[in-house]
Write a structure and sequence with these properties.
Elements (H helix, E strand, L loop, with lengths): L4 E8 L25 H9 L2 H11 L1 H20 L11 E7 L2 E5 L2 E4 L5 E2 L5 E4 L4 E6 L4 E5 L4 E9 L5 E16 L8 E5 L4 E13 L5 E14 L2 E5 L3 E5 L9 E2 L6 E8 L4 E8 L4 E4 L2 E3 L6 E7 L5 E7 L4 E8 L2
Parallel strand pairs: 10-11
Antiparallel strand pairs: 1-23, 2-5, 2-7, 3-4, 3-6, 6-9, 7-8, 8-10, 9-10, 10-12, 11-12, 12-13, 13-14, 13-15, 15-16, 17-18, 18-21, 19-20, 19-22, 22-23
Helix pairs in contact: 2-3
Amino acid sequence: MKPHLWPVASAFTASKHRNSSIDSELGSSSQVVQADTAIDKTKSLLKDGDRFWTPVRQMGLLAWLLGSAVAFPLLASVVQSYTLPVRVDRWLEVRSIDGVVNFHRNNQVQAANYDTRLEQVGDRITTDNDSSATLAVDTGIGFVSLAENTDLHVQEFSITDSGGRVTRLNIVTGQARLQVRPFLNPESELEIRTPAGVSGVRGTQFGVGVAPNGQTGIATTEGQVYAFAQGVTVSINPGFQSLIVPGQPPTPPMPITDNVEIDITRFHPIDRNLVRVAGRIDPFSLLTVNDEIQDVNSEGWFNILVPRPGNDLIPVTVSTLSGKSKDYELAVP
């Protein structure tokens, strides 16, 4: 039996972001400090020639070479111990918050605030239902806008020898839209990784959507994005989108549909506590039922059981990679 569908609201979300005060990708990083160089260490051992060469004459050249095989690695390890590791000064910074947004670090959770920074690998930002956040990239190249019910992790912050900034982020579930200007350094990278594959950018605007099963949609509105999975790379030009199903390569790019419609094929109570909802949406869109993102297959079909609400009205939202969304209420018969 098909229910009555009442569109509650249609929204197209667009964020205006402030320009970052950082004008280039060249940033500060802590320097490698060396207490002594290898040359200094060697000089300290060789400063008295007689003390060094007399044992050589006594032992013979062969014995000295055998001893050196042990001594020089030890010397190298001593010198290496005087070198402090490089700490990379990289971050994402929260620039706007709407609703409930949490910051996670080392198994600790706290409410995110304006200027909260993700600086370490594993740092995480999550948005609740009807919540969103915008993050600025430290290089000043752009912004990452997170939609509701999104879970983003920092996977890598690094700096190449030429000063290129490499940023790799992992989206476990939810939607993100990126607005990025072209990089000045050819070694700079910004990648979004999901359970299904990788999307990379060198200056563009694009959206990424990830379902709980890892199925990932990528849509480009400006510039060019690449999608990579299972050894296959696909270039996605403006106005096109690609789908990555876990375990499969990206689909060939196809025109963006921005479809927020839903077709309900089955909708009935199972018992007093559960309701079955089945139907189809555009596979590039995300389906949220009862404030939880739901899985759909590569053709957009879904078949789920949801708790029966007290008012017999089940909230459903269909949202696209560009940020367009439409809300429905399904009335339990």
